[in-house]
Design a protein that fits this description.
Elements lengths: L7 E5 L5 H10 L5 E5 L6 H4 L2 H19 L3 E4 L2 H14 L5 E2 L5 H7 L4 E6 L1 H4 L2 H9 L5 E6 L3 H8 L12 H12 L12 E4 L8 H8 L4 E3 L2 H14 L12 H4 E5 L3 H12 L6 E3 L4
Length: 286
């Protein structure tokens, strides 16, 4: 197969990376995608160490290359990016690889009060990679960093449940409220946090809950669109962009895989990407 016609691999510890896939599909409508949710081991960021996350990242990368012949990899997981993307780039230099990091630099530029909130998993926010990122923006703003233990798992668990009559009366809303209240006042006045960085791909799916808690004037910053633009740049540089007459049928162009239960992925695909259940399959990756 012509390499440009091969799919882009995308993976996350669970369904959170679907928010990145959503942005990738909008930016690159002629591309094919294989998305893998390692839900059998999710979430990475709350309880998994770097060695485990690194091993899973390498195993999944090998699987996507050998079984699906991907032409590029998007690590749609902040924790896996922090733990292992440098290793993937070193061990597989012929594979264009795009990772995620909390958008501290854009947030610092956008903030008017000079106070920026950052929420993410403990694995991401206690990583050496995040420490270096934080040091790189020292003096540009004051960053209030809050690990949100349990939030990614609650979002993952909520996927297979029916949408509640009141979307704010949920477990995820209660967890969001606990951590947001711990960060201090939000708003546009001096001393308030006016910009909130979503440092986990799962959190995009509770943006409504977060918005209700921080207020309409606080800016929420996520990384899906910048990652999609960077993926386009890398593919263009390596002459790997799919031709504009390539497949654009949603069902034919996206395949969703999980190492966990099938139902939650099917429900998430339908709820957030409007994709049918038959796009989804279970796989085993030792």
């Amino acid at each position: 197969m012509n390499r440009a016609a091969q799919p882009i691999g995308v993976f996350d510890s669970g369904i959170g990376g679907l928010s990145v896939l959503q942005a990738l599909r909008a930016e690159l409508p002629h591309e094919r995608f294989v998305y893998l949710a390692d839900s059998g081991n999710a979430p990475y960021g709350d309880a998994r160490g770097d060695a485990f996350v690194s091993a899973r990242t390498h195993a999944i990368t090998r699987y996507l290359r050998e079984q699906h012949h991907i032409k590029a990899l998007v690590v749609a997981c902040n924790t896996a990016t922090a733990a292992a993307i440098h290793e993937v780039r070193s061990s597989q230099p012929d594979l264009p690889a795009v990772g995620l990091e909390p958008a501290l630099k854009p947030a610092a530029v956008l903030s008017k009060t000079g106070r920026v909130g950052v929420i993410g998993t403990r694995g991401t926010l206690t990583s050496e990679k995040f420490s270096r990122l934080l040091a790189s923006v020292a003096g540009q703003a004051e960053f209030v960093v809050q690990p949100c233990d349990g939030l990614a798992r609650a979002i993952e668990n909520s996927t297979a449940q029916p949408l509640p009559a009141d979307p704010l009366a949920t477990e995820t809303k209660a967890i969001c409220e606990r951590y947001i209240s711990a960060m201090g006042p939000f708003g546009t006045e001096v001393g308030q946090i006016d910009t909130l960085v979503l440092g986990c791909t799962h959190y995009v799916f509770v943006a409504d809950e977060l918005r209700a808690l921080v207020g309409p004037q606080v800016r929420l910053i996520e990384t899906g669109e910048p990652v999609a633009r960077q993926t386009r740049r890398l593919l263009h540089k390596d002459a790997l962009l799919a031709p504009e007459d390539a497949v654009t049928n949603a069902t034919a162009s996206v395949r969703l895989l999980t190492t966990g239960a099938l139902g939650p992925l099917q429900a998430a695909a339908e709820r957030w990407l409007q994709l049918p259940p038959d796009c989804c399959d279970i796989v085993a990756i030792p």
